[in-house]
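G., before I forget:
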Amino acid sequence: MSRTIDIQVHHVTRIEGHGTIVLNAKDGAIRKIEWQVPEAPRFFEAMVRGRSWEDIQTIVSRICGICSVTHSLAAIRAIENAMNIRGSEQTETLRMLTHYSEQLESHSLHVGYLVAPDLLGQKSVVPLASSHPDLVKTVIRIHRLGNQWMELLAGRMTHPVTLKPGGFARLPAETELRDLQQRLKDIVPALTTLADAVLSLAGKLPAFDRPTEYVGLVNPGEYTFYHGDIGSTDTRETVSPQKFESVVNEYVTPQSTAKWTRWHRDSYAVGSLARYNLNADHLLPLAKETAGRFGLKKGCCNPYMNSVAQVVETVQIVEHSLQLIDRLLTAGIRPERPKVTPKAGDGAAAVEAPRGILFHRYVFDENGVCERANLCIPTNQNHANIQKDFEALVPRIIDRSQDEIRHLLEMLVRSYDPCVSCSTHCLDVEFV
Amino acid sequence: MSKPRVAIFDFACCEGCQLQIVNLEEEILDLLTVVQPVEWREAMSDHSESYDIAIVEGSITRPEDEARLKQIRERAGILIALGACATLGGVNKLKDNFELEDVKRCVYGEAAAMPHLATARVKAVDEVVKVDFKVHGCPINNKEFAAIVRCLATGKTPVIPSYPVCVECKKRENVCRYEYQEICLGPLTRAGCNAPCPSAGFWCFGCRGAVDEPNVNAARDVMARYGRTVEDLKSRMLLFGSRQEFANV
């Protein structure tokens, strides 16, 4: 009997931004399988030209609502590299702490609000509020803490205002840090509850392995989100963020308004699973124990496991933040005001967004006016890998019902935690 | 009375304003007692072609998006523009300072001519269709959003402040940013955000657009007192598209 499969998922739901899945097959032969990105491009790299260094992070933060702290930090550190400015140790520690608030907020939103409905057979988190009230309450608690933490250090939820080149516009008081420390200690049991809930559903994550290259920040002895060079599971050599263009090799494809990337293979992946595969040896004890409960091994190449790696990272983030606050309180908060004398220069920076490594580069003239920018977003770097996953996965599931195939493909896209708004909003000379 | 059916749509933007709705946490459950969400791509897999209230986030940057927005307008009784990209054009308007060909070439290089990379001048939502209410800000203040939705669901008209950010900033006892030799748009920008930026040590960048009747002469006095010019203000007003509201200043 002749069987035709025709799937067109226009604007995949429960992701940030617009992506489309196209599959056409007849009698088991695949005629077309594509991950398309039709998001309206926003041209940030062109828009920042002619703007003062003082306005850059305010503009590029708007590339992405859910990675706005990461975008601000990448911009600020690239500006500092261009102008040869070094943030104080206090500034760098507080930035890492601010950055972690976004990781917790984003990971809990992705796992709790966007992925959990798939595992529980629902179309959104709304029905879960009545079917699984305890799980929803736990997710809300963690997510809200991420937001309040960001509000305390970044000045508000989404699009930070305290982060500036040279330092902080407003420093937290020591009493505020002590209060945050207590609230982070109090959230640990909720993180365990979330991990338990995901563990009980982990059997519903499809078993699908496809070896690929994983790329992320690496720094000796550290599970890093902020410091270090660019590492890959395909090579022991690392690359300085100042040379990120030699890693991303961006190119334009007709199926996407976002640029795609490739390094040692046809595609590579970034995000929690990439960080895990590169840095799992350096997890702190509770995070390591959490990974052990899931049996998550370094070298895992099942993209659906990215959500599990996110759960492990929520624990790592809180554990490390407690150490950072200890360090800040022991030293005491020194009053410092950012002072920057603009000068000409070219600087790049790399920071891990919740969904993978992010690169910014800016070139300034002697007055600190931006002449050129190049931005490369994590989701851009995953698009080609999603396409390769589709090509490998579909032949294995082609005998299933059309609905089931569509659902598995949507879940696959969602597992990357894509932020498509980001990926087109940033194409550099190719991006941001 | 049946609950109004609400749909949320996004165009060119960062989706940070939708994120502020998610950030309402449990309060969303309260809102669900007065409205029924029927489509919200970022959070739900449901679709609908019939709704009473359409909430539109983002700027309009392509002809096909203009057509989609007009269809949304036809189906909706009430249309709300959500956030600065929708109400003003937001940071997207910065693109309009350049020639479109130049912008495309800057980002896509040799591939700029590929048809799927087409782009047009940036429009706020009310440059394309009639807008009934605006939720200002980049990002929006989610408490203000919740209050507006509650008003509309219960047949009341929401009240949006028509005084400048300075009023709220002073109430929070902040030192004026001009005392730090910074350019702050507080004197001309619509309040309602409770001045989070100056309260965190940063200047107001005008994301809520101009207050209804801006006191331009008072702003000139402030500029004169601190040795600044209206040109300084105008340059910063370009950031979120509020400059267009001061065409005659």
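Confidence is low (pLDDT under 50) at residues 424-432 of chain A. The longest strand of chain A covers residues 345-353.

More on Monday.
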